[in-house]
Amino acid sequence: MVSTALLTDRYELTMLQAALADGTGERACTFEVFGRRLPEGRRYGVVAGTARVLDAVRDFTFDPDLLTSLRGVLDERTLDWLAAYRFTGSIEGYAEGELWFPGSPILTVTGTFAQAVVLETVVLSILNHDCAIAAAASRMAQAAGDRPLIEMGSRRTHEQAAVAASRAAYLAGFTSTSNLQAGASYAIPTSGTSAHAFTLLHDTEAEAFRAQVAALGAGTTLLVDTYDITAGIATAVEVAGPALGAVRIDSGDLAVLAVQAREQLDSLGATGTRIVVSGDLDEYALAALRAAPVDGYGVGTSLVTGSGAPTAGLVYKLVEVEGRPVAKRSTSKVTQGGRKTAVRRHRPTGTATDEVLGTGFTPPREPGDRPLQVPLVVDGERAGDLPDLPASREHLRRALVTLPWDGLALSKGEPAIPTTVLASEREVAR
Amino acid sequence: MVSTALLTDRYELTMLQAALADGTGERACTFEVFGRRLPEGRRYGVVAGTARVLDAVRDFTFDPDLLTSLRGVLDERTLDWLAAYRFTGSIEGYAEGELWFPGSPILTVTGTFAQAVVLETVVLSILNHDCAIAAAASRMAQAAGDRPLIEMGSRRTHEQAAVAASRAAYLAGFTSTSNLQAGASYAIPTSGTSAHAFTLLHDTEAEAFRAQVAALGAGTTLLVDTYDITAGIATAVEVAGPALGAVRIDSGDLAVLAVQAREQLDSLGATGTRIVVSGDLDEYALAALRAAPVDGYGVGTSLVTGSGAPTAGLVYKLVEVEGRPVAKRSTSKVTQGGRKTAVRRHRPTGTATDEVLGTGFTPPREPGDRPLQVPLVVDGERAGDLPDLPASREHLRRALVTLPWDGLALSKGEPAIPTTVLASEREVAR
Q: Where is the Nicotinate/nicotinamide phosphoribosyltransferase domain (chains A, B) (predicted)?
């Protein structure tokens, strides 16, 4: 186990020291993770990273070496307290793969202030990253429809973020990843084609293709745009025969090139050879390729950078102290104090209409309401096994079906459903 | 040691398998890392991550467990080859803290194809992340001038990316980081204030301030915008006395609030109390605060997301095979084949004028030329100790001084100096 305890902002621990000294550290507190708003123009968020958060909380422990590195920052009392630290509070939250909207309490951490405050940074790091990638990936998966999506962005992001990004992309509907660590850690299918370097290494394109087919079989994907695409496709079929699995085109006007490639492949009898395209694709480019004869996509940079929204903008806010709601001065209703209980309201047809948040109470149940929070940790112990990654993937797929039709539009707009915050049981949603 | 070997795209290893099978894997190759262009409108790039790259290359080894995870993907011959893998080629590159421009060969990897191709993904992951953050950080440091900059973005990015981002920010001129792991791993000064949660935890703001001052001394920084800023500052000085270290304001129109806070602090006799501001600051917001009475900044989200350019866009390209230049069909001069040797040309005044790249040869030396590449690994062994982080920080500071004056402008523009690619020794730069 590698401790996650230093993946923390210094002020968490100095606040801890001050709170231990004056006794307030033992006050019962509730912290909530939520987004005040969705990234600009996005219509929904996707919860991802819950499983990683729970592992990080489990591994949030301070061994002697680690405490030594904090000597000089913290006093002895605080160091002793940290030496014994193990999270013994409770956590509930939205399931991985659930949708979120402004104010949705996607994670609720209860415990003493001291117990809960130290987790802020690592919890937010994980959720802000994974939710950002999953949201972008979900839009791409919608744009790609039934066509397979290969995640291949590892080289464009931090090497460990790449592994988490692969996981989030798979959760949100990608088919496979190029990242071997993600394959090993999360049992995500891995795939890959080849690089221009492999063709350039050989004296001719034909020799490169022969080597690849000899090693990986005719079902492989040959990269045909190193020199001339038409010549490349002719050589590919000549070398591999009409049973060639696929060709990949990584540059140029992909919509035009795909049509030409399809005609050429068909004329060569390679009617079953698929066409995979890549090269600076994002959800808009994928949507623009809907009518093109493309059989699969490789997506890299835009996925791992959240396609313009590299962080989900989630915050970890203290909302209750000893049962009393607390909040910073603010004009926003979704940031008001008090522990939120969330349900998603639906029409009889199953279409979602509202994210309803009760502040300090559970909203009166109506037909079609679906409670959104599930227990994750109870008194320091896991509440049970989490759904596995395929189950979370299915959860998201089903949740997306409930959105009003314009909730899946790629264009900038309002959240797909409004958030209704009920301040007391007497208020009625909408 | 944690192996970095699976932080790799599957196709690197399937290309390896094909190249081992047909013998081309043993061909002597040169790969170069460069950016075809700078992120949109940026005038310079910053090299960061070199030290992390060399550690990743050292740790790129396959133990039996790891090979087991690749069974089914690769054949026995390839698995045996990987079991013995240790990079025995050579690496040279730009020093950490050096500037880069389109085409600059910031890292050059030589070795057999098999030896060098497998490093592509992890090398690019590290450099694309760290260079992106350092470039954004450098612009922020320019905008902040002499005022201290605290890096506090950990919560808005992947938990491990956060540690690397702290390092890159410090390299580029930030003063300290909130991230404790970065402090422990890289000896970066850590700092921090407190969160709104700490005030909300207490029954009154005064009690929170008293607790913080009791624990951390009057030199601490009190967060004064939880409720009302004017009341918060009055309470802060009342509790801590005029020796109060600093107040932090995290919201609102910071330019206006800083003036009011300064007047109020001075009127209370707290003339030495500093004003630290934070809250969605980026390089433009920092520049806009130049005239405000601000003594320090906390920067988070925009730093860790590269302020609009979350990846540096660097590629790892095969440029020579057995001494022969190779390149994909392209219209760009900076992507032509052949190993590049780089010098930066300067006027007698010391102002940089050109990034000069010789393709396959060293550009004829002129007065004021500075060679840019240094040996990093020779035949698998480190070429020597790398400069430490403070030295790299100083390297960048000096390099920035050489830029033409408009090279430091924050507005969008062309690269600060042009890249001149010499295709033969007979060509002369400009």
A: 150-332
Rounded Cα distance between A425 and A365, Å, is 11
Among A18, A129, A191, whose Cβ lies nearest the Cβ of B212? A18
Please tell me the distance from the alpha carbon of residue B262 to that of residue A4, in angstroms, as a whole number.
Answer: 39
Structure token pair of residue B56 = 């990743």
Q: Backbone dihedral region of B72: left (phi > 0), alpha (psi from -120 to 50 degrees) or beta?
A: left
Candidate from A31, A178, A318 with C-beta closest to B11: A178
Judged against a pLDDT cut of 90, whether residue A333 lies above it is answered with: no
Residue of A nearest to B130 (CA): A158
Q: What's the pLDDT at B430?
A: 46
- Mean pLDDT, chain B, whole residue set: 96
Which one of B11, B71, B155 makes the best mutation probe of the A interface by having the most chain A beta carbons within 10 Å? B155
Closest by Cβ to A196, choosing from B210, B226, B328? B328
B252-266 mean pLDDT = 97
- Smallest Cβ–Cβ distance between B161 and the set A120, A158, A215 belongs to A158
Cβ contact, residue pair A8, B152, below 8 Å: no
- For A338-377, write each residue's pLDDT tens digit: 999 999 999 999 999 999 999 999 999 999 999 999 999 9
Are A69 and B196 within 8 A, CB to CB?
Answer: no
Torsion of CA B273, B275, B276, B282, to 10 degrees: -160
**Distance (Å, whole) CA B294 – CA B246:** 11
CA distance A350 to chain B (A): 34
Tell me the Cα Rg of chain A: 25
Question: Per the CB < 8 Å rule, is A125 touching B155?
Answer: yes
Confidence of residue B429 (pLDDT cuts 50, 70, 90): very low
Of A158, A210, A321, the CB nearest to B158: A158
The predicted structure's pLDDT at residue A331:
63
β B99-100/A340-346 pair status? unpaired
Judge: A125–B158 Cβ closer than 8 Å, yes or no.
Answer: yes
Number of CB atoms found within 10 A of residue A378's CB: 13
Q: What is the pLDDT of residues B308-358, one digit of tens each?
A: 999 999 999 999 999 999 999 876 766 789 999 999 999 999 999 999 999
Compute the nearest-CA separation of B141 from chain A (Å): 21
Sheet (strand B314-321) strand order? B324-325, B314-321, B28-35, B107-112, B90-94, B373-378, B381-382
CATH of B10-132+309-336+369-413, one of 3.40.50.300, 3.90.380.10, 3.40.50.720, 3.20.140.10: 3.20.140.10
Interface test with B, best of A6, A9, A221 (most B CBs within 10 A): A9
Domain B193-294 in CATH 3.20.20.70: yes
Distance in angstroms (rounded) separating the CA atoms of residues B33 and B13: 19
pLDDT single digits (tens) A220-261:
999 999 999 999 999 999 999 999 999 999 999 999 999 999
Q: Where does A10-133+309-422 sit in CATH, by number?
A: 3.20.140.10
What digits encode the pLDDT tens for the residues A66-105? 999 999 899 999 999 999 999 999 999 999 999 999 999 9
Six-digit token string for B404: 């033409």
Q: Cβ(A201)–Cβ(B114) under 8 Å?
A: no
> How many residue contacts between A and B have a Cβ separation below 8 Å?
305
Tell me: the pLDDT tens digits for A404-430? Answer: 999 999 999 999 999 999 987 666 544
Q: Do B201 and A128 lie within an 8 Å CB cutoff?
A: no
The domain ranges of chain B are: 10-132+309-336+369-413, 193-294
- Bridge partner list, B177: B151, B190
CB contact under 8 A, B161 and A317: no
Cβ distance A326 to B210 less than 8 Å, yes or no, reads no
In one-letter notation, the amino acid at residue A53 is V
Six token digits for residue A281:
């694709």
Rounded to a whole number of angstroms, the distance from the CA of B347 to the nearest CA of chain A is: 36
